[in-house]
Amino acid sequence: MRHRKSGVKLKRNISARRALLRNLVTSAILEERITTTVPKAKAARPLVEKMITLAKQDTPHARREAGRFLLTPEAIEKLFEKIGPRFHQRNGGYTRIVKIGWRKGDGAETAKLELVGSELVKRAAERAKRREERLTALKTGEDNKEE
Amino acid sequence: MPNPKRRHSKRRTSTRRAHDGLNIPQMAECPNCHQKIRAHRACPNCGKYKGREVIEVVEA
Question: Do B49 and A98 touch (CB under 8 A)?
């Protein structure tokens, strides 16, 4: 019976689930906004919040506690130097989940998990330009071969 | 192997399927661009949710 066993399983065994959630939380801290499926976002959210709560007391012990969960030293650095001070005035509710529609490949509903106050970075135009350049480079390369 | 004993009439089939219809989901209106959108989700047309820009919309 699963009485009093709360939480999501995400169809993984315990080690895969722990690894997935650590990856998600580390990415969320480094990137400030991540796109993932709704259940994964909901599972990662309380863990991200716990990390930020840890970051508000900048003690060596808190850093080690965070280091036991986060995967990279850069994430710990950013958590304590940037994110902790930023949310000093706020008691909880550091993150936001916005549903953004369905993924093309498998129809899974996706969501953005973002730290409150991190603005949307517009990258689509830049990305499109880069792709354009790559395509023209490819084309001219082929042209050169033909010549 | 078990096999059907009797032929199934078309009526029987369609009577069973009478309740199989799909429903059209309830739609909300985007407060920004006034398109019909699914409730509680960012607008796929203008990329906004609760007045804030959430996703980038590439204009073709």
Answer: yes
Interface predicted TM-score (ipTM) of this complex, two decimals = 0.74
Q: How far is B17 from chain A (nearest CA, A)?
A: 26
- Condensed to tens digits (0 to 9), the pLDDT of residues A41-96 reads 999 999 999 999 999 988 999 999 999 999 999 999 999 999 999 999 999 999 99
Q: Is A4 inside any structural domain?
A: no
pLDDT score, position A77: 94
CB–CB contact A101 B49 (8 Å): no
Is residue A93 domain-resident? yes
Distances (CA, A) of B3 to A6, B6, B7: 45, 9, 11
Residue window 1-60, chain B: list those with CB within 8 Å of chain A. Answer: 38, 40-42, 44, 49, 53-56, 58
Mark whether A107 and A44 lie in a shared domain. yes
Give the residue from chain B lying closest to A121, CA to CA: B56
Question: Is A100 within 8 Å of chain B by CB?
Answer: yes
Supply φ then ψ for residue A109, to 5 degrees.
-75, 130
Q: How many domains does chain A have?
A: 2
pTM of the model as a whole: 0.80
Residue A48 covered by a domain: yes
A113 and A36 in contact (C-beta within 8 Å)? yes
* Residues A80 and A123 grouped into a single domain: no
